[in-house]
Design goal:
Helix content is 23%, strand content 21%. It is of the alpha+beta class and 751 residues long. Strand 10 and strand 11 form a beta hairpin. Helix 2 (86-107) packs across helix 8. It starts with a strand and ends with a strand.
Length: 751
């Protein structure tokens, strides 16, 4: 028999390492990276001594990295193959300890260091409102706005490149709430430029003026207008995340930009009804270019003003917590918009690197993304980014982050033109950006110290080992990584292979290709597969028939019947064996047709493809309701049986001839039939526990738009397998009926 029969343990062995996807060949070629200027803290100067720097009090410090208590990083015990790269990993951990020790010495603790928003930007000190900005390259600095008729109030230079202006008593602040503000800087070349304060918490633009620049807004509402959180974070935290990825601006049915309050009142109940336990909010940080999907951030501390005010966003987070859902935010610290008028790039005047937020030369520019790259070694950049992490956790009560563009951060080549094969030498060497890795270690340490149940997810395609191991063990500290290769593989299969050529072994290999002890978020598609130029899985499977063949009042066309069945099976198999968490992009749960296209000149600034057609799922006479019901049942199955977090994960069969996969996850047995036409009566499958089994999910059920070919009240009894190895490596077997293009799920019940 082709394929395999026997156990494939989903808990990947240490030698079975995740292999990342090759970056598309059309991407820009790798760049030569200029060396970081300033004090070199990287090179060991002798045993235990890693260099010196001047601390914030002007005193020279020596740093001796603190080794783990055992003197040996635990990651070597988790994965002995890492021993070959001990020099790199020990060095990386020493760099982390060195930076942390310096922060603690200078600021008292990492948490104190990450409270920069209490001292920078607009803040209150000793009852007085103070404005402070880090701009070491500026010759003069002034605060301007509508409160002073845009006439400059001069700031005084402080130590370490900061500038300060005392505005007056808090009760008599001359800058009213809602004032438009900017900072005017005299560059080293003598000219004056107006910029938005780097630590601004709100920024707006005149929507009636095409191409208008943003203004910072002094956000200081009276107590009566401030949102008061009424709901606690979900406790205990979910054992496994079922994430609903969403974009507030395009979440409404009407062709417009939707608001935080509309999302909270109208969309959150939908998500809750579908049994998701977490939402992931995209495009929260302010970004002047809407079509960037929120990934070209201009103001890191400011909420996106298109969808409302800071208080409106707090209302959304509070409402989600009230429904028991974890709230995760897309955090963009991998790069920043190159927009100088509205963003942080406006503080770069070509000054020396230690006086800038960004690296200089080619090293500070991402050719593919047309954006700026942070100098993660700079003290004030670390303060800015780590404070940004804490700001969203504390001020808005987010529960954690999905860190965008982590692959770009981990390597000097940013993953461009790099095919990661899984060789450990690709992860630990000269191409590794240790400065960025150390920052991520600090950020993850901060998240988990600020919020006991904090969540951090890495968007990484490379599969770097140790990425999702605790910092205390020598890992980078993420809780999960995204299984980015899985959706790419689904698109390849659907686009290029007829059904009869789908390989069960290839599917199992793709879905199980992850590192044991490092958790993965599985997904069959996300926003990446939905943007213009690509298609959702449903639309790729059913095509134009989705416009004419989705009526539930008549027999489905062949393309629709096939597409509906495969949509359900693809989602189920990806969730069942693809990871320890699950992610779905807004609307894909009901097979949202077409694609996402933000308003732009090329489409006449239309919002028609930048919204969600909830009416399709709500309509009782359209087939979208069947996909929605199946997804809710699948999420509910996980909620009831908690199979994603179970240590029991294995595949017992992948039959190429019959196109079947049999897998066990937790207490459940999944039977997938990918054959385009063959139903199997009395199909024998291996199971791990003897007894009676019952059917708990059937994708062919009529309520899910299926043909109802499986009898739901049947009882399934096992037979012991006495031969060596049992049946497909399992000690028992039972027989089931499995129709084509279906998934059946069984659980053991008391007799």
């Amino acid at each position: 028999m082709e394929g395999f029969a026997g156990i494939v343990d989903l808990r990947r062995g240490l030698g079975q390492r995740q292999v990342g996807s090759a970056v598309h060949a059309s991407r820009a070629p790798p760049r030569r990276r200029t060396r970081t200027r300033g004090a070199d803290l990287c090179k060991p100067k002798g045993k235990g001594y890693l260099g010196a720097r001047e601390n914030r009090r002007g005193r020279m410090l020596r740093f001796c990295a603190t080794p783990p208590e055992s003197g040996r990083l635990k990651v070597y015990d988790v994965d002995p193959m890492l021993n070959e790269f001990r020099d790199h990993l020990d060095y990386r951990y020493r760099r982390y300890r060195e930076q942390l020790d310096a922060i603690v010495e200078a600021e008292g603790s990492l948490e104190n260091f990450a409270c920069g928003y209490d001292r920078m930007g607009f803040c209150v000190e000793d009852g007085k409102v103070v404005y402070r900005e880090w701009a070491p390259a500026a010759q003069q600095v002034q605060l301007i706005g509508d409160f002073n008729d845009w006439k400059g109030w001069a700031l005084e230079r402080e130590a370490f490149g900061t500038w300060k202006l005392v505005l007056g008593e808090e009760s008599e602040c001359p800058v009213p709430h809602g004032s438009r503000v900017k900072v005017r800087l005299q560059t080293p070349h003598g000219n004056w430029v107006d910029r938005i304060p780097a630590w601004i918490t709100y920024a707006t633009v005149d929507a009636n003026s095409f191409g208008a620049a943003y203004d910072g807004v002094f956000w200081n509402p009276p107590e009566s207008e401030r949102h008061v959180f009424r709901n606690q974070r979900p406790s205990p935290a979910p054992n496994a995340l079922r994430i609903y990825e969403c974009h507030v601006g395009m979440s409404g049915q009407e062709p417009k930009v939707s608001t935080y309050r509309e999302f909270a009142d109208e969309v959150l109940p939908r998500i809750k009804a579908c049994n998701y336990n977490a939402i992931q909010l995209m495009a929260v940080q302010e970004h002047s270019y809407y079509a960037s999907f929120g990934y070209h951030v201009t103001n890191a501390f400011a909420v996106s003003s298109r969808s409302g005010s800071p208080e409106d966003l707090k209302y959304l987070v509070d409402a989600a917590h009230g429904m028991g859902m974890v709230v995760i935010m897309d955090l963009v610290h991998s790069h920043a918009s190159n927009n100088a008028s509205d963003g942080l790039n406006g503080y770069d005047f070509g000054q020396k690197e230690e006086d800038s937020y960004f690296l200089s030369g080619d090293a500070g520019y991402h050719q593919q993304w047309d954006s700026r790259l942070f100098n993660y070694r700079n003290w004030e950049v670390l303060r800015y980014l780590l404070s940004n992490v804490k700001w969203w956790l504390q001020e808005y009560q987010f529960d954690g982050f999905r860190f965008d563009g982590v692959t770009s951060m981990l390597y000097h080549h940013h993953g461009i033109n790099t095919a990661f094969t899984g060789s450990y030498s690709e992860y630990f060497g000269l191409s590794t950006n240790v400065d960025a890795v150390v920052y991520l270690m600090l950020a993850n340490q901060l998240i988990h110290s600020c919020t006991k149940q904090g969540v951090s997810i890495a968007e990484d395609v490379s599969g770097m080992p140790t990425l999702c191991r605790p910092v205390s063990e020598g890992g980078v500290g993420f809780d999960y990584r995204l299984a980015m290769g899985v959706p790419d593989r689904w698109i390849e299969i659907i686009k290029h292979l007829p059904d009869e050529e789908w390989s069960m072994g290839d599917l199992v290999s793709t879905l199980c290709n992850r590192r044991y002890t490092e958790k993965t978020i599985a997904y069959s598609e996300s926003h990446d597969q939905s943007i213009v130029g690509d298609q959702t899985i449903a639309f790729r499977l059913m095509g134009a028939e989705m416009y004419t063949g989705m009526s539930a009042l008549e027999e489905a066309p062949q393309a629709v019947a096939r597409g509906m069945a495969l949509c359900k099976v693809i989602r189920a198999v990806t969730m069942a064996i693809g990871g320890e968490g699950w992610l779905n992009f807004m609307g894909n749960e009901f097979g949202h047709p077409e694609w996402i296209d933000f308003p732009r000149e090329g489409n006449g600034w239309s919002y028609d493809k930048c919204r969600r057609r909830w009416d399709l799922a709500d309509s009782p006479h359209l087939r979208y309701k069947f996909l929605l019901s199946f997804d809710a049942a699948l999420e509910g199955l996980e909620e009831e049986h908690q199979f994603l977090c179970s240590p029991h994960q294995l595949v017992s069969e992948a039959n190429e001839a019959k196109k079947t996969i049999v897998a066990e996850r937790g207490a459940l047995v999944f039977v997938f039939n990918f054959h385009h036409s063959e139903a199997y009566e009395g199909y024998k499958i291996g199971v791990g526990m003897p007894g009676k089994y019952a059917l708990v999910l059937d994708s062919d059920a009529g309520v899910f738009g299926g043909q109802g070919r499986v009898y739901h009240d049947a009882e399934y009894f096992t037979t012991p397998e006495d031969g060596e190895g049992g049946f497909n490596g399992r000690p028992c077997s039972m027989q089931v009926f499995t129709p084509p293009r279906t998934v059946l799920v069984f659980r053991r019940v008391d007799e």
